[in-house]
Amino acid sequence: MTEQAQTLEGLLQTQLGRVVYGLEELIHALTIALISGGHVLLEGAPGLGKTLLSKTFAQVLGGQFRRVQGTADLMPTDLTGVHVFDSRSSEFVFRPGPLFADVVLVDEINRAGPKTQSALLEAMEERQVSVDGERFPLPAEFLVVATQNPHEFEGTYPLPESQLDRFMLSLNVSYPAREHEARILAEYGAPARASEDDRPAVTALEPGAVERAREEVAAVHVSDALIGYVLDIAAATRQSSSIALGLSSRAALALARAARVEAALRGGAFVIPDDVKGVARWVVPHRLVLTPDAVLEGASAAAELERIVNAVAVPRAVQ
Asked: Residue 126 gets which letter from DSSP?
């Protein structure tokens, strides 16, 4: 078995690690999303490097990066683009919006209104946008990285379940460890280093690196027993008395896909239950809606997932 997926992650860890520090787990998760073609939701306090990570990620991919700031007055056409009249040709031409990029960072997505949030649904699911009855394809490597601050609720619009389900992974960006924060202060403390031009340069991936990793992942075997294990977890979320809305079929598919990539990244030829458990913490909790009683009792989606994973029987034969 080749090691294209592991090589890809090693390159991402090396190049991104030159700019951001202490985010190895997030880079691992971004690798899973990249190979799987999924989108990522980052949740954490401001100033923890989410924007820098996303921008550097786009640079390493060799693609175009666009950043959108979520505000209450952000309109759908501010994302998708709009037709404008060209006086030279005497006709309307389409002017693409920021969604037409390889990596799109939607900062504070929950500050955008529901109408604008819904404009992302088609783009994230079908990788195209519709404007004035016309459909425009997005780049092949189109990837949305959205952020939201869980500690600010005034002036925000919580993401609906349909929007959350479009994010393959949801990651919590926590405060860095002391040694990593000390390195941040040492490296970026000088006034000159505040400029992007003075930050460490990164090398873009070779053409075809992502596609080769995807071909390798496609060869990873997923047994019927392992598929049954994923379905058992999904069924348990739907039957739990503490969960009002369990995993959808899209979520179960995301769990299986992410586990497949996880298996390739550890060098495995087939998926094992530990691969499913390892990625479930990123794939499942943001999709669960707890019942009001469970919320009042202090339950959390992460705790419910842990309880379910511990309760669901693990298959013995998965090869």
From this structure: H
